[in-house]
Amino acid sequence: MLKRFLCIFLLFIPSIVSSGTLKGIPDKTTVFIGEEILVEVDISPGKEMTTIFNKETESVGIVDTVPGEKKGSTIIKIIALEKGMIEVPDITLTIDGRKFAVEGFFVESGNRTDEHDLMLRDIRGTVKIIEKDYFLLWLFLAIFVVAVLIYLFVKFINRRKKIQLHQPVVVSPFEAALEYIRKARKKREEGDMEAFVDLVTIGLRDYMSLKQGGCYKEMTTSEVKKSLKKDKIFSPYLNDILTLLKLGDRFKFADENLTENDYSILIEGFESIVRDIEKMEDSSETA
User: Fold this and answer.
1) H/E/C letters for each residue in 235-259?
2) pLDDT digits (tens, 9 = 90+) for 52-62
3) Which range, of 120-134, 140-154, 218-232, 235-249, averages the lowest pLDDT?
């Protein structure tokens, strides 16, 4: 009976050891959007390591898990995807089948662009001004303004003539999407994956904007998600659209190397969404 109890106890030792919560130490707590955060965990790395957040988040993403430079440590690479005070949720770290809980923390993320100077300054004292005769200056300024107005008027007339001679060709959303798809496939064949990903993600946003008359092209992925919930045309494809945009964000902002399968998901998903929507609209018009 004692031997049997000892055997059962030994079997549960790994789970008991792994059940404690580990504290991750980030190398920085203030970052820019897209900047990498290295979180050091005092646990020896293994051959197979995976990490996932314990709850869904769009503010941060996990890039990779690698052995740390310090012996007996593991590094979790995380990037910030949004601006502001961001919560990094608790993480489940799996090393060679053993699971460990890593405590979450907060980081502050900001844009890479400089803020405008809003510092208030004291009002200067009164300055005495000696009045001078500026007649010739005003005369020259008046002549200059008249000359500019004449130039702009002539340019406007010539432009109107050109517009009348060359009426712009109206391109439908479907035609615009097909052109993006054609160019994206060509860039993929040439090996220009950065241009390929841009053409797919920008093309999808442009197609949605043209279709709805909105401004999806200027939105972040989080803003697109909020708008899609109220969009009658694209709301059924919310998950498919977010999958493509998040893949693009991982490539552009996290500098993550996507697989050939990921690239296929991007172009084929874009094409599938466009063709399904156009087919659905054709069917409704026929009915």
Assistant:
1) HHHHHHHHHHHHHHHHHHCCCCCCC
2) 999 988 888 99
3) 120-134
Pick from 196, 172, 174: which is nearest to 185 by CA? Answer: 196
Secondary element (H or E) of residue 102: strand 98-103
Spatial CB neighbours of 254, under 8 Å, sequence gap ≥ 6: 34, 36, 61, 63, 79
Please list the residues that pair with 86 across neighbouring strands: 107
Beta carbons of 63 and 50 less than 8 angstroms apart: no
Q: Which residues pair with 105 in a beta bridge?
A: 88
Tokens of 157: 């007339």
Q: How many helices and strands in the chain, by DSSP H and E? A: 7, 11
Query: Which residues face 195 on adjacent strands?
Result: none
Match 């890479």 to its residue by tokens: 112
Spell out a b/e string for 212-229, using b for 16 or more CB atoms within 10 Å of the CB, else e: eeeebeebebeebbebbe
- Contact of 51 with 88, CB cutoff 8 Å: no
Please give the model's pTM, rounded to 2 decimal places: 0.42
Sheet holding 84-88, edge to edge: 30-32, 105-110, 84-88
